[in-house]
Design brief:
By secondary structure, the chain is mainly α. Helices cover about 50% and strands about 0% of the residues.
Length: about 130
């Protein structure tokens, strides 16, 4: 595991696997209602998790190594539809950040938490 963390850390230092400023400029307005200060870091953690396939969300390299807190933040990002909106925005840009990205590790969660099925989006029965 230490070797995978080292490999991912080296790629991070080179700016690989994380959002570019252009990516973020397209995503940030879409996420204006999500009130986390570390939104971009959460998105980057998700991207690293997907690229470095042998690492779990609780074992990412610094500065993403926040264990359960980061794992929960990524799952909330998926649940509220933010992952889908960010991924789609980066695809529309033709961003190298998501080029060839295998998102299958998130597919089940994305399907389960499509925005229409989120508790916040359900119409009131009253």
């Amino acid at each position: 595991m230490a070797e995978q963390v080292k490999d991912c850390s080296e790629k991070l230092a080179a700016g690989v696997h994380i959002t570019t400023d252009e990516d973020w400029a397209a995503i940030e307005p879409l996420w204006s209602r999500w009130k986390r200060r570390d939104k971009r870091q959460v998105l980057d953690a998700a991207l690293i998790y997907l690229r470095c396939r042998k690492l779990g969300l609780r074992s990412l390299p610094p500065p993403y190594d926040r264990g359960h807190e980061m794992e929960s933040a990524v799952y909330l990002m998926i649940r509220f539809g933010h992952w889908t909106s960010a991924f789609n925005a980066m695809e529309r840009l033709g961003s190298p950040t998501v080029a060839g990205l295998d998102t299958s590790r998130f597919d089940r969660r994305v399907e389960r938490h499509k925005p229409a099925t989120c508790r916040r989006d359900k119409p009131s029965s009253i």
